[in-house]
Amino acid sequence: MKRIGVFTSGGDAPGMNAAIRAVVRQAYALGVEVIGIRRGYAGMILGEMLPLGVRDVANILQRGGTILLTARSQEFMTEEGRAKAAEKLRAAGIEGLVAIGGDGTFRGAMRLLEEHRIPVVGVPGTIDNDLYGTDYTIGFDTAVNTALEAIDRIRDTAASHERVFFIEVMGRHAGFIALDVGLAGGAEVIALPEEPVDPQAVAETLLASQARGKTSSIVVVAEGAYPGGAAGLLEAIRAHMALEARVTVLGHIQRGGAPTAKDRVLASRLGAAAVEALTGGASGVMVGEVEGEVEITPLKEAVERRKDIRRDLLALSRVLAL
Ligand code: F6P
User: Is 128 designated active site?
Assistant: First the structure.
């Protein structure tokens, strides 16, 4: 393999730039050229490409977002869109791809491989941490720390005003961020998409903590845990108790910022491992880190198998929130 392409797609995640840098520099070490594809699959269809040399990726290791830009492409969902993308890749002499993103990115990559025989290796880049075959995805640790810093600040005002705060964190289908942030932030209640949320039970928990003398509380809600998110849950709880409460939606603040050391190390390791795998003949797989070791998992498994949340940590958060 003499020339490979690299792109980022779907929601951006801190550490994507560190992964791009690792792809370019590991490829250089192996004598392989790298072409950067801009705007994910949308840019691939339009042939938005640029050669990436070792100096082009200088000074990006510490930067959030993605220098290659990202998008969610509707056109790539169609057969015609994928055919156009494959044609552009062939015209540019790209023999294989490193796809940095989450489940939507990997589903697209699988179609490109099936329909057009373009070898691809995935690098897990999403704040959601919802991919099987890696203990952590690139960006998750940074997102958790960003949300945690916000929660610590909110706790100050919650305590001063003797209020309950309902804090919504990202995660439409996965509660990994909510669970870690809730446990690390000492939340009284953590609402996750993976567990049924009963407003009456939450009201009872809050009433019980008030009875034990608590004057303020934090409820962490993953955006997909309850219809209407944190605001929807608060409204439902108000049917069971009166409470002085406020809602804070942390939103896209969780996707930005400089990656933590942990995310930079993970991204550097997996970006390089992806190039080694791709140039060594692997395809249709994702590189991940499991118990400290780099592991290769078929893309199909990475997106279809469910990585469950740590239910023991959820139980622990309830014990410690006394
Ligand atoms: O997949 C990453 C993520 O940030 C999710 O946590 C969130 O539900 C979604 O993307 C938001 O997407 P968008 O930025 O397109 O609104």
Answer: yes
Domain count, the chain: 2
Per-residue pLDDT tens digits for 174-184? 999 999 999 99
**Residue pLDDT, tens place only, 5-39:** 999 999 999 999 999 999 999 999 999 999 999 99
311 lines ligand 1 (CB under 6 A): no
- Do 123 and 13 reside in the same domain of the chain? yes
* Contact criterion met (CB below 8 Å) for 38 and 51: no
Spacing, Cα 59 to ligand 1 middle (Å): 26
Determine which one of 128, 130, 141, 180 is catalytic.
128
Please state, in angstroms and rounded to a whole number, the distance separating the CA atoms of residues 196 and 187: 18
In a domain, residue 86? The reply is yes
Burial of residue 22 (number of CB atoms within 10 Å: 0-12, 13-18, 19+)? buried
**pTM metric for this prediction:** 0.97
Which domain range does residue 184 map to? Answer: 141-256
- Residue 190 near ligand 1, beta carbon < 6 Å: no
Q: Are residues 65 and 132 in the same domain?
A: yes
